[in-house]
Amino acid sequence: MIPIARPQMGDDEKQRVWEAMAAGSLAQGPRVKEFEESFAALVGAAHGVATSSGTTALHLALLGYGVGDGDEVITVPFTFIASANSIVYTGARPVFVDVDESDFTMDPAQVEAAITPRTRAIMPVSLYGQPAQMDELTDIAERHGLAVVEDAAQAHGAAIGERRSGTWGAGAFSFYPTKNMTTGEGGIITTDDAELAGRVRLLREHGMKVRYHHEIIGYNFRMTDIGAAIGLAQLPKLAAANERRQAIAARYDAELRGVITPRVRPGVTHVYHQYTIRVARRDEFAARLAERGVGSGIYYPIPVHRQKPFIALGYGDRSYPVTDRLTEQVLSVPVHPSLSEDEVSTVIGAVNETAAELA
Ligand SMILES: Cc1ncc(COP(=O)(O)O)c(C=O)c1O
User: How far is CA 166 from the centre of its chain?
Assistant: First the structure.
């Protein structure tokens, strides 16, 4: 079976991790600092604050902007639940707006109507590796005095023109093993805002600048030096890995038949964390791909507002028609950089045969 993801661990990762272990540097230490600086530089942001996960990066970014009890944050229901959960953790309420059917990201045309006097921030999600419509959304945020937190968990190296994901307001990335690059578990907040970076640093470490002198109630959301060691080995390979993903996606774009392939907005660099097609009879389609030796993934089968905890919070009867349609139709096929050309051909053959059978 060709798997939907295949994390790559090589000699560089082993060497870096061994060096961290040999130095006795297991918790947050010099490798985290080096990783923060290197990742921020790659993104083109002035500051990077590494965290224990993408979820804690989102949570801290919101807290850093002062989001809390009684506030509202606008996000999308077509995402991993962590986007909305991070809002709930702060005491704020997620307000969902639907996604744009053309690119699966937040529809800017719907945002203004969702803004109320309680709105504090907008959290677009750069889903599957394509940046959300950040310029339009940032314009709206600026007009209304709102913070922007980009959920860039799937968008390492993605860009609009020359400007990379993670440089609008605050960006929150995930380094979970299946992402375009990994630290094991881990995340990072990137921003040009020095004050925000200072606040999230403080929050990440129990409100402590001087050891055991606590200025605020904070958290332990630190990345480990072991994780950062893996990340430092992965970083120099990201550009080539993304290019390989793009090359595979280009073959899929050219050779897949009978399915809807992803649309990339002009001028946008899509880094294909996922290559996601739309098909009718999706679950049967996935089962037939599996019979042909091709793994696939559904991101996501249930929109966030229809997940149990959000039904309990009163969101269950809302309707977001594009999201509802997409959750029934999306299917991601393997696009990871370690696929051989033969494996890519196998995926293409399997998708095309299945599409013909189910037409
Ligand atoms: C869109 C999105 N947001 C947030 C997260 C949370 O990241 P993590 O799993 O590192 O906490 C993920 C990754 O799983 C994600 O895909």
Answer: 11
The preferred substitution site among 88, 174, 223 for testing ligand 1, maximizing ligand atoms within 8 Å of CB, is 174
Residue list, ligand 1 pocket, CB within 6 Å: 53-55, 79-80, 82-83, 125, 151, 153-154, 174, 176, 187
Distance CA 312, CA 317 (A): 11
pLDDT digits (tens, 9 = 90+) for 178-232: 999 999 999 999 999 999 999 999 999 999 999 999 999 999 999 999 999 999 9
Assign residue 287 a region (left: φ > 0; alpha: ψ between -120 and 50; beta: otherwise). Answer: alpha
Distance CA 203, CA 191 (A): 16
Instruction: Tell me the two tokens of residue 78.
Output: 């077509």
Dist CA 61 CA 55 (whole Å): 10
Single pTM value for the model? 0.98
Q: Please name the residue whose Cα sits nearest to atom 4 of ligand 1.
A: 82
Q: How far is the CA of 218 from the centre of ligand 1 (A)?
A: 21
**Residue pointed to by tokens 């995926």:** 347
